Amino acid sequence: MTIQWYPGHIAKAERALKDQLKLVDVVLEVRDARIPLSTHHPQISQWLGSKARLLVLNRLDMIPAGARKKWLSWFEEQGETPYFTDAQQGKGVREVAKAVQLAGVEMNQRRRDRGMLDRPVRAVVIGFPNVGKSALINRLLGKRVVESARRAGVTRQLRWVRISEQIELLDAPGVIPSLLKNQENALKVAICDDIGDASYDNYLVAVALVEYIKDLEYMAEFGLFPATPLKTRYKLDSAPFTGEDYLQALADFRYKGDIERTSRQLLHDFRKGVLGAIPLEFPPI
Ligand SMILES: Nc1nc2c(ncn2[C@@H]2O[C@H](COP(=O)(O)OP(=O)(O)OP(=O)(O)O)[C@@H](O)[C@H]2O)c(=O)[nH]1
């Protein structure tokens, strides 16, 4: 199957991102906690060079507590400290601000060592489309300044905002272009709607979602997944079906055989959390 991006948009987004990165000392890289690996861009560390980076896993509310614990220990094993946030509710945001502040203290220490004066640390929030960057910026600001768009891929002009005496933040987030050669990652990103300007087939993406759910359902036993989320929501058990057959059966059972509508409904329910807290990735073993 194919998920297509518009190459012009990707090149433009990449240039805009690099311009933003030049301006800052600290980068807050936001990923989707449901798919922390698929919302990682392989070139990030190359783009950042020696700049400080803070890893934020947003949509904390959309994964079970057990999955969060697993990711925490996995990232720590990799030598990284993930900050988990629910940017919609403001959870975990204070800890992120503290970490930026600390990066500023370290930066100013280095400046003083070189005989320079202190200055506020400059930061930017970056991430794939729709992962919650604007929501995080708003929470860091403590008020609604940046429009938190419901549609993917919305950007604005650059402006600095003060979030404390010591921190200046670019009010517009940097959008990481979803250049995804790996179709499995691309599918997960499409399922989660972290995809921006892309065209894809709702039906194929919905089938993939059903298949992921069927594959991961056994994790409910370990508290890492909701029990039978499809059966609970639609009163139609997915166990006897393949992904394609389930969508057809569900369309026949509930949506007058309309498979496109069924696909859209399923994706909508997943994205709104109606199916429960459903992680689509777990740490590699
Ligand atoms: N459930 C949940 N929803 C969130 C969270 N963070 C953001 N959202 C919602 O996700 C949608 C996208 O959030 P935005 O902040 O606009 O995302 P963005 O990354 O700035 O998006 P673009 O500007 O399109 O790249 C909005 O509907 C937010 O309300 C979260 O932690 N949990």
Question: What would you say this structure looks like, in words?
Answer:
This protein is α/β, with parallel strands linked by helices and 285 residues long. It has 2 domains: 4-175, Rossmann fold, CATH 3.40.50.300; 201-271, no CATH class. It has helices at residues 7-22, 44-48, 65-77, 93-113, 133-141, 183-191, 202-216, 229-234, 243-254, 259-271, and strands spanning 4-5, 26-32, 52-58, 82-85, 121-127, 160-164, 167-170, 174-175, 198-199. The strands form 2 sheets. Strands 2, 3, 4, 5, 6, 7 and 8 form a 7-stranded mixed beta sheet that branches. The protein has a two-stranded antiparallel ribbon with strand order 1-9. β2 (26-32), α2 and β3 (52-58) form a beta-alpha-beta unit. α6 packs across α7 (202-216). It is elongated. 38% of the residues are buried. Guanosine-5'-triphosphate binds next to α5. One of its GO terms (biological process) is translation. Keywords: Cytoplasm, GTP-binding, Nucleotide-binding. GTP binds at residues 58-61, 174.
Label this structure with key terms.
single chain; 285 residues; alpha/beta; Rossmann fold; 2 domains; seven-stranded mixed beta sheet; 10 helices; elongated; binds guanosine-5'-triphosphate
Given helix and strand content, the structural type is alpha/beta
Q: Per the principal axes of the C-alpha atoms, what is the gross shape?
A: elongated
How many domains comprise the coordinates? 2
CATH architecture of the largest domain: 3-Layer(aba) Sandwich
Percent of residues in helices: 40-55%
Number of helices: 10
The hetero molecules present are: guanosine-5'-triphosphate
Radius of gyration: 20 Å
The ordered H/E elements are EHEHEHEHEHEEEHEHHHH
CATH superfamily of the largest domain: P-loop containing nucleotide triphosphate hydrolases
From the 3D structure, determine the CATH topology of the largest domain: Rossmann fold
pLDDT averaged over residues: 91
Q: Can you tell me the CATH class of the largest domain?
A: Alpha Beta
Strand content: 5-15%
Distance between the termini: 28 Å
Unreliable residue stretches = none
The major beta sheet can be summarized as: 7 strands, mixed
Total number of strands: 9
